[in-house]
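Here comes just one.
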Amino acid sequence: MRTKFLAALADKIPAKKIQSEGFITETLKNNISFTDFFPQGFAVIQTNGEGTIAEYPVIPGRKNLIVGELEWFIKAKNSPGVIISSPFRSRVIDDVLVVIATALRDESGKVLGVLVAPIFLNRPGFMAYIFDKDFSEQSDILVVSRKHQLFLASSNPNLVLKATPIKGTNRFLDEVIGGFNGYGDAVTSVGDKMLAATSDINSLDWFVMISTPLEKVYKIINKSLRATIFNGVIVSFFVFLAIMFFLSLFFNPLKKAAESVRQMVLQKRSLSHIKGYKKDEIGDLIIGFNAAIDMVNERNDKLEKSNVALESLSQIDSLTEVFNRRWLDKTLNHLWLVKARSQQPLTLLLIDIDYFKKFNDTYGHIAGDNCLKQVAKTIQKTVSRPTDFLSRYGGEEFVILLESDIEEGALVAEKIRLAISNLNIMHSESLYKHVTISVGVASVIPQLAIKPVELIKHADSALYQSKEHGRNRFECHEDRVILRIIKENS
């Protein structure tokens, strides 16, 4: 959502107005009122990274900030779309942030400025549940990077960008950093017992950890239980028999409440309200318990929404802006099960850019990256049906999944090959003197007894044949007669 908003805002700044500080400031001011996604506002930075052209709101120190050598700034200038930086500590405001940025270009593609929006990880807005006073007073909340073993955000600001404790200090945290995902008992360095739970954020190798002292979990119940027992002790002996009769009814809701708490701790069933309570002390306890359930469910909903937002970032290859290898594996496994059930064919195209290493060696890696972007964009335009799936497989290889047979796959392969060839991207080290591709096509009706990787192996075998036969062509793993069909229809 934030990246789309920033891209839309960039479209509202015409190239001829980029050096007009007044116009840009007014544009930023008018648009910031439409969203609360960017509490720190926006800035347009000079192309050399030395200071801003305009900003709103004005933040002390930002106008003269020099960012030309920073990785995210260089990446924004070289990327056709919106980029999101890795977390780092701000030099203007001593806080951890990520930067969302996009280049402002003229009609020729020349960069005239960079539109940026900082998002502070450890402030309300991005992960608001961390800063909810009622919740953070009951539990400790951490956002941790497994790879760097750092606390990225925390309900305790003193932990931000600090290293996680040395191995052996917190056994539960050690297990989570090692890959465990779930819940369990944890003991802090000072011996406090905690109930802890974790959930992976499927992007950038982060996870969220929430820990609550066991003492707090049972505090309300124990308090009411002590009050009830005390009241029972002082009841007159003359009404003892009557009290014994009513106690069984009186304590039944409390027993249900205690059982619900126990089930919550063990996570054997979902949380739900306790019904049928009376208007007494136990009823007040159950009302409070039901309110606690609402609070936990609300926080879980917020956590799930944050996970969904962050997971979407993990599906796209940052260079080519098509789906990445991880999302390909997930999609292929899903389609395999669907097609196995319906007994319909699934076709896979494995695409490789011919002589790409020589292209990089001759023209440089920047030109190589631009070549990959052009090829990905052209393939995306060629396979535009809703069911067509395109991803980067690795390096200079791409994969297309088609919910059709091998004949359709062969037609699509030839269509893509011609489209890439017609780009006429110069390649002096190629036999064809311009960039070409080779394609391997494989198709199968999936079976549950066969693994999806077999389809990739078949396509890879066909790709090998394409290269053996001279490149700039496609080969099918099955039914070689398809080549004759393509020639007859061309």
Notes: DSSP finds 15 helices and 16 strands in the chain.
